[in-house]
Design brief:
With about 725 residues, the chain is α+β, with helices and mostly antiparallel strands. Among the domains are: about 5-170, Glutaredoxin, CATH 3.40.30.10; about 210-225 and about 245-410, no CATH class; about 600-690, Glutaredoxin; about 695-730. It has 28 helices and 20 strands. The longest helix is centred in the C-terminal third of the chain and has 27 residues, at about 695-720. The model is unreliable at about 1-5 and about 720-730 (pLDDT under 50).
């Protein structure tokens, strides 16, 4: 490349990740026909680099290697170099990540893979330093090795690449497990997860910890049926919420914990993690009634609306891990900084409660985590709990204001349809569970944006990415499945049947575009998308829940709402398609097992009729959403046409003009009711919580109330003695 053309072909992209590499001296191409044709025409291997804008080690490799003039010269001379944002092209990422795992036994980002000109992978890894260190070969050495592998013996290389391709091609194991009962597969997964559960610190395994919400959703559903496994959920979710994984000042979860104790996170914040975890914590709030499980989602949404919401109401993709050239700099604190901001007394209280010391956790800086509960600290220090509570609240406000003045981590302002779908679902559920209309308004604005900008009604296709006024990239299965789930959740929270009409359009398009008529299940990329070297289905849960599992659950719910059996049959067929794979490793498919559980249980059907403005409507609505009932179906007979779209509403009317609920459960329908008390008597009671869950917030509130009452009592005695409480004329 000439000096005049130093900005490479990425300069016209909208992806923040690709634009981060637009000034590299590497002759980068985005994933495009031009690059692939160039490799074929010039008989050059392809260097494929995949990452995302919030990836710390992606930044490191870019700075160390892709900004290095000598390394870039080698790349430009010997390879066609393609840079891919995995968030824009999850289909490309899925194929080549699977290939990398086959080649090396592990995966991750940055993904650094070498392909033949016909796009077959033959060599690669993840992060490489520029020169050998960290027990890793240097990238300069890797480039030379990859080039020699390609040029020395192409026949042998083609055999190697073809073997990898065969291994990553999807297989259908359905016929090998037809006779295995569903409950046996579910029990097997529960046993595996129970064995992996870290009883000391929560989560699974004894190394770094990921949130893995699909596992916990599955276990919560299992608890509803059996009363088991709630201890795993409570221990793990509480540890996540109290650890460094959660931003204790600003709300929102970081990506994962680098240690067993949930103390030190990898600091990037992803929209999808927070959508999934907000919904999970709300479900736990319904199950346990513990305050922590509603406080955490509220704080997630506070972060979302403050930091991650576009002017049009849709949600941005992520926040970076780095700021000011250091990972976690924005979120961490030196003890002396806290002392200067709070003063010695308050800093001492805050430091002990939130685990701060002089050494710090990262280069002398501390990650805030709850080290000691307020009650224990107040008892140990003989300080009234209301005083400690006041100090902590004021300290958090002070530190948050100070943090707001720091340079914030970079924000990836892509609007990704799939991830917005997850957050729509979370907000819709929050509106129903917490009774806060702001969440419904936010979910509605976002869904309206996606439908108006990302749904192409003429081409009957959903687009994946919106950035800088452009809608681009054909949607993958997760875009359709997650957004479909969001539309259904939005209907059940707001009862506007326009969302059901749109959900049916989207579901039908998803079936046309992604369903495998031969083997069953859904492909990740659609019929109208460009062909890749393999068409994958990826039924296992990864960082995101399996799109096949979410599609199955969303279709099941839509089928039950609309009475259209074709949707339910596709759920059944999806589960049968992957039954063999599930049998081999049940705990890898907890999303599909949740769908299996839902399919096997009769739904709780609640049809509302009458005015939503009437007080008894709200009263019955609150009763229905108080407990965790994952398989409920909620319908409102809004108008005469509701029965056409939602057959369960047919003939259900408000008796004597007052709001009425028609309830069916366990395949039995009850007489209509018109009060919350009557509905509560009919509803099947949830599992008893066989767990001594310590509700810290509630106990602290009671202690605080008692201390204040004692204080007022003492002051009342003083006032009486001084005569200050006497009325005029009293002696």
């Amino acid at each position: 490349m000439t000096d005049a053309n130093i900005r490479n072909r990425l300069k016209n992209e909208t992806s923040p990740y690709l634009l981060q590499h637009a000034d590299n001296p590497v002759d980068w191409y985005p994933w495009c026909a031009e690059a692939l044709q160039k490799a074929q025409a010039e008989d050059k291997p392809i260097f494929l680099s995949i990452g995302y804008s919030a990836c710390h080690w992606c930044h490191v490799m870019s700075h160390e290697s892709f900004d290095n003039e000598e390394i870039a010269a080698t790349m430009n001379e010997k390879f066609v170099n393609i840079k891919v944002d995995r968030e824009e092209r999850p289909d490309v990422d899925a194929v080549y990540m699977k290939a990398l795992v086959e080649l090396t036994g592990h995966g991750g980002w940055p993904l650094s893979l070498f392909l033949t000109p016909d796009q077959k992978p033959y060599f690669g890894g993840t992060y490489f330093p520029p020169f050998a260190k960290y027990n890793r070969p240097g990238f300069a050495q890797v480039l030379q090795q990859a080039y020699e592998l390609y040029t020395d013996d192409k026949d042998k290389l083609q055999v190697r690449a073809q073997n990898v391709l065969q291994k990553i091609s999807p297989e259908n194991h359905a016929d090998t497990a037809r006779g295995v009962p569903d409950d046996q597969l579910i029990r097997a997964a529960v046993e595996i997860l129970s064995d992996k559960f870290d009883e000391d610190y929560g989560g699974f395994g004894s190394g770094m910890k990921f949130p893995e919400p699909a596992h916990y959703n599955f276990l919560l559903r299992h608890w509803v049926q059996t009363g088991d496994a709630l201890n795993i959920l409570d221990k793990s979710l509480t540890a996540m919420a109290e650890g460094g994984l959660f931003d204790q000042l600003g709300g929102g979860f970081h990506r994962y914990s680098t240690d067993r104790k949930w103390r030190i996170p990898h600091f990037e914040k992803m929209l999808y993690d927070n959508g999934l975890l907000a919904k999970l914590f709300l479900d736990m709030f319904q199950a346990t009634k513990q305050e922590i499980y509603q406080t955490v989602p509220r704080e997630i949404f506070s972060w979302l609306l403050r930091e991650m919401t576009s002017a049009a109401g849709a949600f941005y993709a992520s926040q970076d891990a780095d700021s000011e050239g250091r990972e976690g700099a924005y979120y961490t604190w030196e003890l002396k900084e806290v002392m200067n901001l709070l003063g010695p007394k308050h800093a001492n209280v805050f430091a002990k409660v939130y685990g701060l010391d002089v050494r710090g956790d990262i280069d002398g800086r501390n990650v805030l985590h709850i080290s000691e509960c307020i009650e224990q600290f107040a008892d140990a220090e003989n300080i009234p709990i209301f005083e400690v509570d006041h100090i902590i609240k004021k300290a958090k406000e002070t530190l948050f204001r100070a943090r707001e003045k720091r340079r914030k981590p970079a924000r990836d302002e892509k609007i990704i349809t799939a991830w917005n779908g997850l957050m729509i679902t979370a907000l819709a559920n929050a509106a129903a569970v917490l009774g806060d209309s702001r969440y419904l308004d936010s979910a509605t604005r976002c869904a309206d944006f996606i439908w108006s900008r990302q749904w192409d009604s003429g081409g009957r296709k959903l687009l994946r990415v919106y950035k800088d006024g452009q809608s681009k990239v054909r949607g993958c299965l997760d875009d359709y499945a997650y957004f479909l789930e969001g539309l259904v959740a939005l209907y059940e929270a707001g009862l506007d049947d326009e969302w059901i009409a749109r959900a049916k359009v989207l579901a039908n398009c998803m079936l046309d575009e992604f369903w495998d008529e031969g083997e069953g299940g859904f492909f990740l990329s659609g019929r109208s998308s460009e062909p890749l070297i393999a068409k994958l289905k990826n039924p296992a849960d990864e960082a995101l829940p399996s799109a096949n599992a979410v599609a199955a659950q969303a279709l099941l719910k839509l089928g039950r709402l609309t009475g259209e059996e074709k949707y339910i049959r596709k759920t059944e067929a999806t589960l049968n398609t992957f039954r063999g794979a599930v049998k081999k490793n049940p705990a890898a498919f907890t999303g599909l097992l949740s769908a299996m559980s839902a399919l096997n249980l009769p739904p709780v059907e609640a049809v509302f009729a009458g005015s939503k403005a009437h007080p008894s409507f709200a009263e019955m609505w609150k009763v229905l959403h108080t407990d965790y009932r994952p398989d409920k179906v909620v319908i409102w007979n809004e108008k005469k046409t509701s029965g056409t779209l939602l057959p369960l509403a047919e003939g259900k009317t408000a008796e004597k003009g007052a709001p009425t609920v028609y309830l069916c459960q366990k395949n039995t329908c009850h007489a209509p009711v018109q009060t919350g008390k009557a509905l509560d008597k009919l509803l099947e009671k949830p599992q008893e919580i066989r767990l001594n869950i310590f509700n810290r917030e509630k106990k602290n509130a009671k202690i605080l109330e008692q201390e204040q009452a004692n204080f007022m009592g003492v002051m009342g005695d003083i006032f009486q003695q001084t005569g200050l409480t006497r009325k005029p004329g009293q002696k």
